[in-house]
Amino acid sequence: MRVVVSIGGSVLAPDLDADRVAAHADAIRRLADEGCEIGVVVGGGGVARDYIGAARELGANEVQLDQLGIGTTRLNARLLIAALGQRATLSPATDYDEAAQALRRDEVSVMGGVMPGQTTDAVAAGFAESVDADLLVYATSADGVYTADPNVDPDAEKHEQLTPTELVDIVVPMSRDAGASAPVDILAAKLIDRAGLRSIVLDGTDPSVLVDAVLRGEHSGTDIVPGGTGEPTYWAQGE
Ligand code: UTP
């Protein structure tokens, strides 16, 4: 089974804790040991926001800010690569071809951001689409996709399952509302819809959650299932 995992910067490195990064690397290694081909896209988290905030005060334009963000995603990617040792690519891939080639070499293919104007949510969807991944997992600090932003709306309820088109319909109004934060960015949702990518959005704080979700389909987040309500069977192949 070919899997792309997006690990948010706020999940991997809310602060610099080597043990936490090692635990995430252990989960990835475990999946590779079970025979999964794994691509990992790492986010920038709070470090990206701090750099972007400082540079914005200094008058940097949006592209310059995005380049700083991309730099921090690659910094975090290098941290995960350090923890994965021999299993991983030597350095974060800078485009999808490079990332796909690493998968063909049987390496854990790690990358951060690739170009201004998006976030690593979209990178993960683009990577998954480019390698025809069986599964795309967003290990985020949110525990699924809600009917509205749960930080803003106390009546927001978590979806157990959605189609990709329903995901787009949820994300579009959130991306228009400056106060709301979408579970995945709008470009990612559109790529998931276009490619019909089987996806999961879950709380990745505890790395073992990722292993259960990929190998057994067990998680308490949201399943994005193309084509409606069919029972997903992908995890049976991973065991
Ligand atoms: P993240 O993907 O970490 O952004 O990229 P995020 O979703 O705001 O962070 P999390 O989910 O809380 O961890 C950090 C920043 O890097 C730039 C953007 O500015 C983004 O906000 N970036 C990232 C790009 O411009 N292009 C990319 O391909 C990736």
Describe the protein's topology.
Layout: E1 2-7, H1 9-12, H2 18-33, E2 37-42, H3 45-57, H4 62-84, H5 96-104, E3 109-111, H6 120-130, E4 135-140, E5 161-162, H7 164-176, H8 186-195, E6 199-203, H9 208-216, E7 222-224, H10 234-238
Parallel strand pairs: 1-2, 1-4, 2-3, 4-6, 5-7
Antiparallel strand pairs: 6-7
Helix pairs in contact: 2-4, 2-9, 3-4, 6-8, 7-8
Describe what you observe in this structure.
The chain has 239 residues and is of the alpha/beta class. It has a single domain, classed as Carbamate kinase (3-Layer(aba) Sandwich), CATH 3.40.1160.10. It has ten helices and seven strands. It has helices spanning 9-12, 18-33, 45-57, 62-84, 96-104, 120-130, 164-176, 186-195, 208-216, 234-238; strands spanning 2-7, 37-42, 109-111, 135-140, 161-162, 199-203, 222-224. Strands 3-2-1-4-6-7-5 form a seven-stranded mixed beta sheet, with helices on both faces. 46% of the residues are buried. Residues 8-10, 43-45, 48, 65-66, 69-70, 73, 113-116, 118-121, 123 line the site of uridine 5'-triphosphate (UTP). Uridine 5'-triphosphate (UTP) is lined by residues 8-10, 43-45, 48, 65-66, 69-70, 73, 113-116, 118-121, 123.
Descriptors:
binds uridine 5'-triphosphate; Carbamate kinase; 239 residues
Structural class: alpha/beta
- What coarse outline follows from CA principal-axis ratios? globular
Could you report the average pLDDT, rounded to the nearest whole number?
A: 93
Helical segment count: 10
Give the tally of structural domains: 1
Order of helices and strands: EHHEHHHEHEEHHEHEH
Q: Approximately how much helix is present in the residues?
A: 40-55%
Strand order of the largest sheet: 3-2-1-4-6-7-5
Poorly predicted runs of 5 or more residues: none
Approximate strand percentage: 5-15%
The CATH C-level class name? Alpha Beta
> Rg, please?
17 Å
Bound molecules: uridine 5'-triphosphate
